[in-house]
Amino acid sequence: xxxxxxxxxxxxxxxxxxxxxxxxxxxxxxFATQSDLLGSPRSAQKLLNIFTAFGVFGYVLxxxxxxxxxxxx
Length: 73
Fold this sequence. Notes:
The protein is mostly helical. It has helices spanning 2-19, 27-35, 41-71.
């Protein structure tokens, strides 16, 4: 069950990182402002930062749990 949880968090983090808006690039930034996909760029960046932080925290916890379960004698 922990392996499935870690896999889902890994995929979630990959997707979230792809959605992050580049600051200097106009590629995804202009797309996000024209389509209003994630709201305003500033609020979208803040929301994605929060999701990324929770995702990384959950991944670290699941990695520690997997490590302890694999090292038990």
